[in-house]
Amino acid sequence: MAGKLWGVGLGPGDPDLMTLRAHRLVSGARVLAYPALAGAQSFARSIAAAAIAPDAREIVMDVPMTTAREPAQAAYDSGAVDIAAALEEGEDVVCLCEGDPFFYGSFMYLFARLSDRFEVEVVPGVTSIAACAARAGRPLVARNERLTVLPGPLPRAELKRRIEGAEAVAIMKVGRHMAKIRDVIDALGLTDRAVYVERASLPDEMICPLSEAPEKAPYFSMILLTKGADPWL
Ligand SMILES: C[S@@+](CC[C@H](N)C(=O)[O-])C[C@H]1O[C@@H](n2cnc3c(N)ncnc32)[C@H](O)[C@@H]1O
User: What is the average pLDDT across 163-190?
Assistant: First the structure.
């Protein structure tokens, strides 16, 4: 009988924010899979490290950091082949996913490649948005307010237009787009409504008003913006 593929959300970084189910699955896994960006250590693996059995087999998908989609898709193609081989041998495979697997998570590429042939189950995780709001002490949305989630790589004009039309905003994937995002928020006169959160829940976490944020932001950073009067008052 073929094994089962698990897409396991591990939360935003602090291993203590893994769910009990995620911890149980990772601890019992004989085969693990995870992406590693551009040859760097896998963030997902680092979250789960203490729970991984020393003799577990690890399938690493080396995903290049390019704007072109094809090289990353090739990495998922070849990862899916290795995972399928393990599943066909009857092994369950636990795929490690930072945050939640289906919220901007790369697990969806494996899901698309394998879920028609194998049993796949997704275990939800604490998303980075929830973690950033919690660590910043900023409720995200109240009553009938709408939350708009925007990726930082959006073109400047689109970013501006979408922030203008939004109520509460979370801007993800800040990284090298920091200067552009800051300019847009400044031009809209909203800098004093924005908070910057870097590596939420990790020991080197940083949280500050956007006006005091560093010029260079790492990939694991986010900007939260509330436009209306504080809706929770
Ligand atoms: C590809 S998305 C993955 C999101 C993830 N699946 C989730 O559920 O949060 C990566 C983006 O999530 C955000 N992110 C993830 N972890 C974070 C953290 N600990 N602190 C701040 N932002 C984080 C950053 O904006 C980063 O660029």
Answer: 97
Task: Give the span between the Cα atoms of 37 and 132, in whole angstroms.
Answer: 22
Structure confidence at residue 68 (pLDDT) = 78
Q: Please return the burial class of 9, using the count of CB atoms within 10 Å of its CB with bins 0-12, 13-18 and 19+.
A: buried
For residue 227, the tally of other CB atoms under 10 A from its CB is: 17
Give the tens place of pLDDT for each residue, 78-97. Answer: 999 999 999 999 999 999 99
Query: Cβ(210)–Cβ(182) under 8 Å?
Result: yes
- Ligand 1 pocket, residue 127 CB under 6 Å: yes
- Which residue do the tokens 């020991």 mark? 203
Residue 61, helix vs strand vs coil: strand
Q: Which residue has the tokens 């289906």?
A: 102
Among protein residues, the one whose CA lies closest to atom 24 of ligand 1: 220
Q: Ligand 1: does its nearest atom lie under 6 Å from the Cβ of 104? A: yes
CB of 44 within 6 A of ligand 1: the answer is: no
Q: With pLDDT > 90 as the criterion, what percentage of the chain qualifies?
A: 88
Q: Is 11 in the pocket of ligand 1 (CB under 6 A)?
A: no
Cα separation, 182 vs 206, whole angstroms: 17
Cα of 74 to ligand 1 centre, how many Å? 23
Q: Mind spelling out the 3-state secondary structure of 72-137? A: HHHHHHHHHHHHHHHHHCCCCEEEEECECCCCCCCHHHHHHHHCCCCEEEEECCCCHHHHHHHHHC
